[in-house]
Design a protein that fits this description.
Blueprint lengths: L1 E2 L2 H14 L8 E2 L20 H13 L4 E3 L4 H13 L5 E3 L4 H13 L4 H16 L9 H4 L8 E7 L8 H11 L7 E2 L2 E2 L3 H6 L7 E7 L3 H13 L4
Parallel strand pairs: 1-2, 3-4
Antiparallel strand pairs: 5-8, 6-7, 6-8
Helix pairs in contact: 1-4, 4-5, 7-9
Keywords: Kinase, Transferase
EC number: 2.7.1.121
Protein name: Phosphocarrier protein HPr
């Protein structure tokens, strides 16, 4: 992740690593600190460094991994595109999407074992997750999700146990569980395999949610419902 601010990049790396413990996440933020400037902001200058970005990308590639790159503002994007051009042929991709949402969604997708295409898809999907106007929901969709006219659906209604609700870590853990679904599982009207979609629900502690899907995946639906009811934020 590339940011003009070292603190922003480092903080976002810490956040994403909480939800994607097995993913190599490398921040490349700001400019090197000026040793002569005792008041140098942000642990260094505000800006982007070609060398720092190239080193971060090489760290991922040298580990034998594909590399997805996310940026914050214009000049960061320009610098990243230069780095990608110089690494032609390597499994490196710049994904043009909002830095925070895309990084979190992409990291969770990588944790689930998805490839670069999957990471990009989830990063872009994260944008629409928060673009939806939840204020317009009538609240009844959760009751009917997962069912059909033939009664082939199955659902469980449970209360959210985590004190902070379905925030980052619980959402990421649920998404990882739901990634095993072949039919698709919903929590209310959110795709359970998308951490950002789950977070967009804003489900608070004590709030009831409905976990639903195809009856053929009853065991997985029960596991997810039980996890929500027991709490996931260790």
């Amino acid at each position: 992740m590339v940011s003009h601010s070292k603190r922003l990049a480092d903080g976002l790396a810490l956040l994403a690593s909480q939800m994607a413990r097995d993913v190599l996440i490398v921040p490349a933020g700001g400019l090197d600190a000026d040793p002569e400037d005792k008041d140098s902001p942000d642990g260094g200058g505000i800006g982007t460094s070609y060398d720092a970005i190239e080193a971060a990308v090489n760290k991922v590639v040298d580990a034998g991994l594909a590399c997805a790159i996310f940026t914050d503002l214009g000049s960061a994007t320009i610098t990243v595109e230069m780095v990608v051009d110089m690494l032609d042929g390597e499994p490196v991709r710049f994904i043009d999407a909002p830095l925070v949402e895309a990084t979190v969604a992409g990291a969770v997708a990588a944790q689930q074992g998805q490839d670069l295409d999957g990471v990009e898809r989830e990063a872009r999907r994260a944008i629409s997750a928060f673009a939806s106007d939840r204020a317009g929901d009538d609240g009844d969709s959760a009751e009917t999700s997962g069912g059909d006219a033939n009664g082939a659906g199955y659902s469980r209604r449970v209360k959210v146990a985590d004190k902070a609700g379905l925030h980052a870590r619980p959402a990421a853990k649920l998404a990882e569980m739901a990634a095993d679904s072949e039919e698709g599982i919903l929590v209310n009207d959110a795709d359970a395999d998308s951490a950002m979609s789950l977070m967009s629900l804003g489900a608070e502690c004590g709030e009831e949610v409905t976990v639903s899907g195809d009856r053929s995946e009853k065991a997985l639906i029960d596991s997810i419902a039980d996890a929500i009811a027991a709490g996931l934020d260790e």
